[in-house]
Design goal:
The protein is an alpha+beta fold. It contains two helices and three strands. It is globular and about 35 Å long.
Length: about 70
């Protein structure tokens, strides 16, 4: 993680906002959604589980003023 990136704890994000963030991430990162065997809700749940199990985290980049979900190392 770069020095301009801040990890955002899940418990600090409103659940509705978190769901919308994950939906936006899924549609941005998995452009083949229409051809996938998984629905949007299934992919959202997969990402949410990865976040809950600390396999991924949400980071906010202060330089670009944007956020992303990244795998944990």
């Amino acid at each position: 993680m770069s020095e301009d990136a801040l990890e955002i704890p899940l418990e600090r994000i409103n659940p509705d906002t978190l769901h919308k963030m994950i939906e936006e991430f899924v549609t941005r990162e998995w452009s083949e959604l229409a051809d996938s065997e998984y629905t949007l809700d299934e992919k959202v749940n997969q990402v949410l589980e990865s976040l809950r199990h600390k396999q991924a985290t949400i980071v906010y980049d202060t330089a670009s003023e944007s956020w992303n979900i990244v795998p944990c190392r």
